[in-house]
Amino acid sequence: MIEEIDPGDHHTREMYARYGLAMYFAQVVEAALKNALLMARLANDQFATVDDFDVAFAANFKTVLGRLVERFKPFLANDELLGDDLQLALAVRNQLAHHFFWDHAADSTSWDGRERMMRECEAASELFQEISARLEIVVRMYSKASGTPMTLFEDRLVQARKDLLAGTEAGDAIRNCGRCLTPMNPVGRPARPYLACHSCGAVALV
């Protein structure tokens, strides 16, 4: 049975979808920056051992975007434009996460207003995708400089996916943290149970 949807309701759903996509690409930028920072440090001989690299890899996934941008600044001497755009991406991400729906409270009640909201989300998505692509070039540059094959990240991603799936039972709640793969523990009161990762602080409602 196909649900009958009022055009206004469909338009509202589309607006929320565009917002969700913008926030997704914001997280893509964050992940790309974590990789770029890691490879920049590797190329500058800041890791004495493989264990040092692994510790930094894990630590990056506990670090918020603002701190990542600050830590990446020393490696941006030859690309001030990327530094400026990373600051803009941080501001736009924070705007979307903390103020977007409050600032557009009136817009959300009309067709034209929702169109404005969608255009803003689309512009954010385009900005985030452009910066992600530029960060990928940075990662490849530092990978080449350090003699590290790009397959390093691909192999780690494949293994991380295997580890994550191994800790998840079909039809059951998440058992391994999707951020750091640490087993998540059931916590909370009976009326409001949730899972928590004591390693990185991630939580998941069940």
Written overview of the protein:
With 206 residues, the protein is mostly helical. It contains seven helices and three strands. A three-stranded antiparallel beta sheet has the order 1-2-3, with no helix packed on it.
Index terms:
206 residues, 4% strand
How many beta-strand runs?
A: 3
Strand order within the widest sheet? 1-2-3
**Order of helix and strand elements from N to C terminus:** HHHHHHHEEE
Proportion of strand residues: under 5%
Rounded mean pLDDT is 86
The N- to C-terminal Cα distance equals 29 Å
Profile the largest sheet.
3 strands, antiparallel
As residue ranges, the low-confidence spans are none
**Structural class per helix/strand content?**
mainly alpha
Helix count, DSSP H or I runs of 4 or more residues: 7
Basic shape: globular
In angstroms, what is the radius of gyration? Answer: 20 Å
Indicate the percent of residues in helices: 55-70%
How are the secondary structure elements laid out?
Blueprint: H1 7-43, H2 50-60, H3 65-72, H4 80-98, H5 100-103, H6 111-146, H7 151-166, E1 185-187, E2 194-196, E3 203-205
Antiparallel strand pairs: 1-2, 2-3
Helix pairs in contact: 1-2, 1-3, 1-4, 1-6, 3-4, 4-6
